[in-house]
From TrEMBL:
Signal peptide: 1-23
InterPro entries, per database record: UPF0412_YaaI (IPR020240)
Family: Belongs to the UPF0412 family.
A Pfam family: DUF2541
Name used for this protein in its record: UPF0412 protein YaaI
Recorded name of the encoding gene: yaaI
Entry keyword set: Signal
Keyword Heme: no
């Protein structure tokens, strides 16, 4: 009876771990507080090497106006890509997936993502959440 319980527990743990692996495909890379005045130097640094194929942006608190965004790769410090981001994101809204030209074979890791923009229609700073998909 003890071996049946041990086997059942092992199978259950295996199922939980495999479903967790599928759920981890989308990870929050970080959050940025958007100031009320327009700025060009909002940087989300990603300290751990992450191959990211695409990102989503969510306005967690307040409305956000974006003027642009760029992704920088770790392998070559001057290697970057401009991202096609929407000009505005309303509070609670999540964008469609934004593709990044990341090469899995060469392990082009994203080191940082920069944004230019500001909070709008809010007395507080809006928060921009960046979600990555590998």
């Amino acid at each position: 009876m003890k071996s049946v319980l041990t086997l059942s527990a092992s199978l259950l743990m295996g199922l939980l771990l495999s479903s967790t692996a599928h759920a981890n495909d989308h990870k929050v890379l970080g959050m940025i507080a958007m100031p009320r005045n327009a700025t060009n130097d909002l940087t989300l640094k990603i300290p751990v090497c992450r191959v990211v194929k695409r990102i989503q942006l969510t306005a967690d608190r307040g409305d956000i106006k974006l003027n642009g965004a760029s992704v920088y790769f770790k392998a070559a410090r001057t290697s970057s890509q401009s991202l096609n981001v929407p000009s505005s994101i309303k509070e609670g809204q999540t964008t469609n997936w934004i593709n990044i030209n990341s090469d899995n074979d060469n392990k082009r890791c994203v080191s940082k993502i920069t944004f230019s923009g500001q909070s709008v229609n809010s007395s507080d700073m809006a928060t921009l959440k960046v979600i990555g998909d590998d």
